[in-house]
Structure formats: C-alpha cells, structure tokens
Design brief:
Chain lengths: ~280, ~280, ~280
C-alpha cells in the first residue's frame, strides 16, 4: 500500500536498462515483432517461443512471462497453459493480456483456465476486456460486447466515468487478487488497495495495431524488476509518454500512422529518467 | 452495370472512415501486421484470427472477410474453409487473395475449394495468379508459371497487352461469376460486364513485401460498405495513389524501400476525398 | 582456397540484383517480414512457406533455402527436415540459422538432425550458438549458455579474443565440413581453410530484433549466385555496411531504434558496388 513517486518510477526505468532481464512473450503473430522491439527499446531482452515442447525450458531461463491471446492456435493454448503453470510454480511473475476476450469461446476459456489455475501478477486490457473477465467471474452482471479486439464505444474511459470505473477496477482487482491495468484515454491501475490513473498517451495509439500488445510486453519486462503495481504504473507511463511524444513528432512533420508507429519505438528507446520526471501525468486516487 | 465516377469513389472512401466496419483477415504471417495497419489507415477496424475453433464466431461479428493463402497451414486451411462457408451462408461479403496459386498443390486446392463451395465477392491477384485460377476452371488452356509469389515476367501488364488482358479478365470474371481485380503496372478490374483500368501506383510497390496483401485487405474493408465492383475500384485506386505519393516522398528524400513501406501507410492514413479527386487515373474501357 | 577481393564481392552484389533468384525462407514469425524485405532490398525474390505439404514443391522452384529455427512448431520442424533433405538431394544450397540453440531440446535436436542428414552450405549464428553446435558434435568440451536468443556476455568477440576465436571457428568449420559465419562486433567467417574477419556493423544492430535473421536470409540470397564462402563474406559485409550507415543516419537525426530498423532496409536497398568498395572492412587472417 506504499505510494509510488515519479522518482521511484524513474528508478525502475533505469534498473530495467541495467539488468536487461529476459522477458518471454507468448504472443500473437500480428504484432510480435513490435513487441520484441518494444521490449528491447525499454532495455530488456525479449524471447518469443510458441512450442509446447519447449515451454518449461524457456520459462525456466526467463525472468518474466507475457501471455497475449491475440491469435490463438490449439498448440499455442497448450504452450500458454504449461508456461503459466510452470511460471507460478517457479515464482516467475507473469502478465495476461486477454485480447478479444468475450468475442469467442476459446478467447474466454483460455484466460479463465490461466487465471484460475495460475494466478497472473497483472491482467491488462481495455475496459471491455476487463469487464468481460469480471463477468465470467460473476463480479459484474453484464458488459457490452467489444468491437472485435477494440474497446466498445461506451467503454472508453473519460472524465465523467472515471470515478465509477476506478471503483469498478479496484473491486475487480480485489476479487481476482491480482493487479489490473486498464488502458484508455485515461488509464486505470489498481492492486485492489490503491488506484492510480494516468493521463499520458495520444489518440493516435489506437490508429495503429499493437499499442496494447506492446504495452503488455513492456509491463512484462518491468515485472522482472519490481512488484506488479509498480511495474504496471511504470510501463503504462512509459508507453503513454512515448506515444505522446511520437504523436507530436508525427503531427509536426505531417506524417501519418506508419511513421507514428516507428517514432513510438524511437521514443521508447530514448526515454530516460528525466523524460519520466518531466512528462508523467500520474495521479493517485 | 452502372458507371462509377470519382465522386462515387470519394464518397466510399469517406463512408468507410465514418462506419469503421470490422474487417476480418485470415492472412499470412509475413505481412499480417501491415495488413492490420493498412485496414486501420483507411478507417476500418481489423481483426486477425486463425483458429478453426473460433472461425464462425469471428466471421459472425465481422462485416467482411479476407482470405489470403500466403503461408498456409493445415489448421489455417480448415479455418479458411469454415469461414468462407459461414460467410456465404450469412451474406457476409468476402475476398479471396490466392497468393502463389499455381506453385503448389495446397495453393491450388484451397482456392478451388473456396471458389467452388463459397463463391467469393472478389478474387484479386497478379495476372499469373488469376490465369492459374482460370486454367484450373478450364477457362484458359495454358498459363506461365509464376516466379514464387511474384508475377511471371511475361504477365506484367503493359500498353501492348492491355486490351487482350482486359478481354481475358472480363471473360474470367463472367465465367466465375465474381469480380476480378488484377494488379500490375496497369490494374484491371471487371465484374464480367464492365472493365475498368487504373494507372496509379509505382514500381517501388513491388520492391517491398505486402503491397498485394495490403491491397487485398483494403478491398475487404471497402467490401463492407459497397458492392464488389465499386469496392475493388475504390481500394485499388486508394492503394495506387498512396503508393505513388509514398514513392515520391521516398525519392525526394533519397530514402530506400524501408521508408517507402512506412510512407505507404502514412499516405493511406492521410488520404481523403480531395486526394481521390485530384490523383485518380481511372478509365472505363 | 582463393582470395576474395572487394572487386569480387562488389560483383556478387551486382549479380544478385541482375539474376534476382528465388530465395525460400522457412523462418520465425517475429522477423519474417523484415527477412522478406531484406531479401528484396538486396535484389532477390523471397518466398516464405511453412507447410510440410508443399515443402518439396517450394524448394523445387527455389534457387536457395534458409532455415531459421527462431519460433519452431511441430509442423514447421517437419517442413524444415523435408526441405533440407530435398534441397541436398537436388543440389540446392541452403543455410541454417540455429537461433537459440542450446536453450531447449527442440532447438538442439532440429539443427542436429538437419546438419547430420542434410549438410548445410553455411551455418550462421552468434558465437554462443556456434559453440553450442560445436559442443553437440564433441568439437568443444564446454560452452556458456546463451541469454535466450542473444549471445552470452563472455562470447562477444573483441580484439583480445579474436585470434583464438578465429582458430576455433576454422576448426569447427573443418570438422563440420561447412562454411561457418559468426556475427558479433567483429564477424568471423571460415570455410575450414581460410578465415576472414569483418569489422563493419554497429552496436545498434543488437538493439533491434531481426538483425541476425535478416543476415541469415541475405546470406541465403547470395548463396544462389556464388559459393558458400563468398556468399557468407558478401552478405556479412552488405549487412554490416548497411547497419553502419543506418546507425549514422539515426544518430545524426536524433532518432531511436525504430527509425534505425527502417533505415537499415533503406541502406540495403540503396547499396551498390561503390558502397562496397569504399566502406568494407574485410581482412583475411
């Protein structure tokens, strides 16, 4: 229940660059390269492996694990379950990114299996995804169906819905006994006790594929060097600030979404202590 | 058999940005991220899913479907067949991009199965691919083998071969009872009645991977908001114009093919009504 | 045992652009698009296919083959074995890139099977990977475990360890009867008789994913037009020079690793005879 200052966060950013932990990402085929480059850009060392035959060996040498269900296959689901189980048995922290949960049966069953059998350190997603998870655990009675892998229109967090959503996320986090990181125009992070909001970021982030997936992998990298709540705050700030700076560069140079995606990795790779201290819009509720 | 004006096309471009339909792409692992970013750039919302277990659920929530056979696996072939069948039964338009048809048995059998059992709204490809399809349906007696996934040298459409190729494409389109979109230095599009040609584009587009795949997915996005012929014309114009503008920027700044690929997404994301009206080189034959 | 001059190398660079051979890459899902774009950038024509059902057909039409084990699946392992066997039976040169060998059982068994049953023309990797291969063939008694898919700290080649590592690589190459290309701050290439070192490149190359994978595919492209030793020297010089120029552009413009990755493809696509002659840092030991 400690309070995290920007000084703490800036330190975590630097520690990751010093320690360069091995971050294992079992993720989708759409954005896997951007995920690897994002992990490298913030200073960690990524590995991506999908075969169930090597699941335990790879988790065994890794410092943390990311599970992103964006493009599941039967084989990958097996790898995810084995990896999550092995991670929890060996005290390796891991994050679950339940992309598109709520829109198909395997996108519901895979997260349920992983959450129930191998409690993740962090679950991250957009509000529609987190609500879909909450509904499956009877924490919520109803939720709006997401638009594919994107958030439902009514689940976009704004000033008016912030307080109620903060309470909701705190409640879900407490019930599931895990840290929850929700991304949106305003990000909400809770460990069931405290709630933080972050107002960094830019709307351009939702005009490219991979912003959410990269965030999940960056959180996974920070999980290797600090506790889940601080990892979630740090990674969300880092991605939000990088997104903001990248969008500014894209607009200033009359570029579109292609260049924005490249500038985002640029900013992640250049980001340091002073960027965190000067740019962060972090609030404790 | 209506005639499409640039005003019509420009309207379709704007309608896609307003409606942002969900475009489901079952596509190859090489260019899948560029496909998602291209769909986002023109204003639609992409989803990529490969598991047969969720095929019907994902098609069920999507507004249109793209099937690209670039890197087939046994599992993905099953997903494609189920998805195409479900799409046709539920009146969801879909486009088939038979990448490399003619070079292997599974690249022949998969399109045949899909075309025969679940008529696509559009089939798009380079001339070698479309001729390979035509030969399998006894519309053509012979064709030149493509160079891998690239067009055969003798199948590059130019001024001299334009008329005969237009007649050929119209004939194939009529026989297969579907819209055909052939890309090349001059693009040819026919619904079996009318034939349109487009002279936008740049040779640099064939020096990166994914130009054809992105085109297929962009056509798929427009399929969600208009009829196959207009969708094919609109998407082909949009990609061609974006390619032209991106190549100019790359050359003006002494950049190579890496930057060109990024500028292409930039231009897709910036393209609007006035770009269409001022840049289009569309002819009705 | 001939000596390769920069004139020879520059000629190979030009011949690849003229002949544009079909280069088949069975590679990982992380960097597959960059691999295709790198192959296109140096002038060859890439094809990527993973299904065992079409393995022999695709190798049959290809001029050379690349096998990269970065993200193995059961199906892909089958494709690799069939493809390697068919390549060797049909005198198609191929290169093996044993990504992460030493860190899991399938990453050990797959290269062993391929090396033993279908001798590759080139094996390329970082020093940790090549040492792991050597240990499995009893050429070395011990080696340091790599850090995931990255080189172990103690295996980074520098001035002090250069001579001993050159001798080691020459020995491994002789014993395995294949050309070995080791990448690092100083690259070492040997065919068991001669040893060449290359000091081009930039540290930024290890801050993005895919530098090694792209190198493997570029070597594969050159394998289609010359012998393994000259192909390895040419491809390593080409990638190193492109990396150096790209890093300079990134630094001069205060860009990060995202832009660097794009500039790398730019430089590969612009590289010509005069770049080779003016920039190469090639030494025969």
């Amino acid at each position: 229940m400690s309070e995290y200052t920007l000084e703490n966060i800036a330190q975590v950013v630097e520690i990751l660059r010093e320690k360069s932990p091995l971050t294992h990402c079992i993720t989708n085929v759409v954005t896997v390269k951007d995920c690897a480059n994002a992990v490298l850009a913030v200073g960690a060392s990524p590995i991506m492996a999908n075969a169930p035959e090597e699941a335990e060996e790879i988790v065994g040498i890794s410092n943390s694990l990311v599970i992103n269900i964006g493009t599941l296959t039967k084989e990958q689901i097996e790898t995810m379950k084995k990896s999550a189980k092995f991670a929890i048995e060996n005290n390796k922290p891991f994050i679950l990114d339940p992309v598109g949960v709520g829109i198909s049966n395997i996108r519901n069953q895979t997260p349920i299996d992983i959450i129930t059998n191998s409690k993740p350190s962090i679950i991250r997603g957009n509000l529609s995804e987190i609500k879909a998870i909450a509904m499956m655990y009877d924490i919520l009675d109803e939720c709006t169906m997401a638009k594919g892998v994107d958030v439902a229109q009514c689940d976009i967090i704004n000033k008016d819905t912030l307080i109620s959503n903060c309470n909701l996320i705190k409640n879900i986090s407490e019930k599931l006994n895990t840290t929850i990181a929700v991304s949106g125009p305003i990000d909400i992070i809770s460990d069931g006790h405290d709630v933080y909001t972050i107002e960094n970021g830019d709307a351009m982030m939702s005009r490219i594929t991979g912003s959410g997936c990269m965030l999940g992998c960056v959180l996974g990298a920070y999980l290797a060097v600090t506790n889940p709540l601080e990892a979630a705050i740090t990674g969300t700030l880092v991605m939000g600030i990088a997104g903001e700076l990248a969008a500014k560069t894209a607009r200033d140079n009359n570029k579109g979404t292609g260049s924005f995606g490249i500038y985002l990795i640029d900013e992640l790779s250049k980001l340091n202590k002073s960027t965190i201290l000067s740019q962060s819009k972090l609030n404790k509720m």
